[in-house]
Amino acid sequence: MDDNVAVIGVGLGKVGEHWEKSLRDLAIESIWMAFEDSGIDKVDALYVGNMSSGPFVEQEHIGALIADFAGLGPIPAVKVEAACGSGGAAFIEGYMGVKSGMYDYVLVTGVEKMTDVLPSKTTSILANASDRDYEAFHGVSFVALNALVMRRYMHEFKVKREDLSIFPVISHKNAPFSKHAMYRKEISLEAVMNSPIIADPLSLMDCAPICDGAASVILCSEKKAREFTDTPIIVSGVGLATDTLGVHDRKHMTTLSAAVEASKKAYKMAGVTPKDINIAEIHDAFSIMSALSIEDMGFAKKGQGTKMALEGQHYIGGDLPINLYGGLKARGHPVGATGVYQIGELVYSLRGDGRVDAERGLAENIGGSGATVSVCVLERGD
Amino acid sequence: MKPNKSVGIIGYGAYVPKYRIQNTEIARVWGNDPNLVPIREKSVPGADEDSVTIAIEIARNALLRAGIDPKDLRAVWVGTESKPYAVKPTSTIVAEAIAATPFVNAADWEFACKAGSETIQACIAYVGSGMAKYALGIGVDTAQGAPSDALEYTAAAGGAGYIIGSAKESLAVIEGSLSYVTDTPDFWRRQHEHYPKHGNRFTGEPSYFKHVVSSSKALMEELGTKPDDYNYVIFHQPNRKFPLEAAKMLGFLKEKVIDGLVSPYIGNTYAGSALLGLAAVLDKAKAGDKIFCTSYGSGAGSDSFSLEVTDKLADRKVKAPSVKSYIERREEIDYARYARYRKKIRM
Amino acid sequence: MDVPRHWREQVRRYRLVGSKCKDCEKLSFPYRTVCPKCRSRNYEDYQLIGRGKIISFTNINSPPKEHKYNLPFAVALIELMEGPVITAQITDARAEELEIGMEVEMVTRKIMEYNDDGIICYGYKFRPIVEYAHP
User: Fold this and answer.
1) Architecture of domain A5-116+211-225
2) What is this model's ipTM?
């Protein structure tokens, strides 16, 4: 298909602890929100981004499950898994489904139901994204892996902990506006600094919360999109790359090479450079990941990832506003759903939500400690 | 008493965990008189240590000193009463960890505190018969005394191991070894019980002293030696008092006991006890020194050994950490942490 | 209790055995069968010495339950003297004693155990180097 691929529908379920809703309830709610948003109610294929439905709720085969209960059968429906990067990876699969001409309309749903198990089990399940035999086996949690990277980063670039603590503040700044966010409140730098240390030097407020959530987006060709809207949001570039699964095998412990690779691909496809990006949804699962992402996607030099943040350039009105709906930190991080939330939020911003006038933005979704990174560039099609 | 082929120790290794609890701390918890405690402090294994991990470090130290290929070991025998598994050998894990598998005899030996010295005597026979080129015997324990019991003050963790080979390769030649055993129930632990029971003063005269003295005398008689021939003597050391008393009964001068008397600093390491004392002596001994060593295991019996140091010891002893370096590596813990590490708090 | 899963790794874990590319000599830990440098599949086991230095570390306070017996403990990225970097626990040292650049040596310790009736998994950890003080 020669035409561009566009997003015509978005459904972002409320993120939080949904004691009364199951994985399927959450997924179906977001799917029908996206249908209402788009004006259609049928698609040709479903890609589900999900990390760990098996360990979390003892349910696999969730492509068929969700298609069935959303009333979409018998369409093809499969799960796409790349740990916390599952949502972004599923979105790129959906993109390819349309771009290849195989499907006219594709639904991408990201869903994770994390709160049915006790926190210690959640820690163990999340650690499955690392090398189980050579990282997690040693009791290294996901938080700990990020703490290892953070200490190394602080050591190599002489960066102070408080310089990194600005990232949660930035994400929370935008949260009150975000109807679907888990924590709709601002937080202070002192609050982050004074929050309990959970894996030195990482503190509690450096980390995105465990929660439930589901997000859906609908993709089709730009030509078809124009039948529904005058301002379709075009997917102008996508890139996905991998790195060593274990942090210990990285050539540079403090570089997300998958972010370097994925962003290069996405920029090239979109025909843009980092300077052309107006807004960004950054994978701020941990403060350190924000700094590395800013650097490795070309917005700052190595070791300078906190500079723009400290200058206030990531707030609305700055050079590169980020995480306009709260990021992972305030919106919440229902792991496999996160990548789809980011796309939906980027679409909201580009459509115009009264806060920024952005022409182009990107969403960066990280799987594991950086072994999978997807970068998607979206732009206003008016 | 001695094998057809002359054998000796070609390498030895010791290990003592880092953690210590003071006897006064134990007395404080149970309201006992801090002036009447048997020793100063005892070693406590860390939460991630057990007889397997201790035996592995001992075996590695012994290999460092012996300088042999672990594949040449025909036996890896571990004497212990604190097996991590009731059923499943400790020795196979040790043998695998030091790359001695698979053509090796591996077994766990049990005879209270003399399980370790028994493995050494068996190694002597195994190598002395020509069936094995080298054999490794280890005595190790992470001993537990019941909370508030007299044994709690001394039951400690640690051990030592010896690689036996031909006399010409030895750092100490073994001149002979002998055992003395009777059925004497002075100390025991029934199946599924956490802690042992003991006969209090019955553990002394009819048990420890009778077996240690009889065994020692018999070996010296067989060899035609006397206490004055030896530079060092080591006895099983459940406390500080017993070995000194045994030495006196046999006619060994007190100063010959002191270098091998480690129990005042680390406690009674049970199957590791006499062997650890021997390692401490080897750390100090010189070529030509003669060493006498007698273990004691409740139940009851003693194994005695007579050794003469060769000129190979000087070069080999520096190849692994000495007993002293492990004793000096210490971190004091309180009773609460000790109770947690030793799983005395049952949840 | 996942016995086969632990059993097949145990020799590498007990002894710190990695692999070496027979074509370009690149060392890997954990073992690999395809060289990340030259893509050769001509690989052999390689026994590492077990010494290195800490390049980063952190403390664990809320691990999965199989590790709770050992709390609190530190984990570190350790650059082995042969080159590979490894993730492992630091034992016999309090977190306050650690620093980047500190030299450590490998020991085999209990990593985790499945309750009181399951298997015990042993493997490598690292500790500050024990001095060979001699009397």
Assistant:
1) 3-Layer(aba) Sandwich (3.40)
2) 0.96
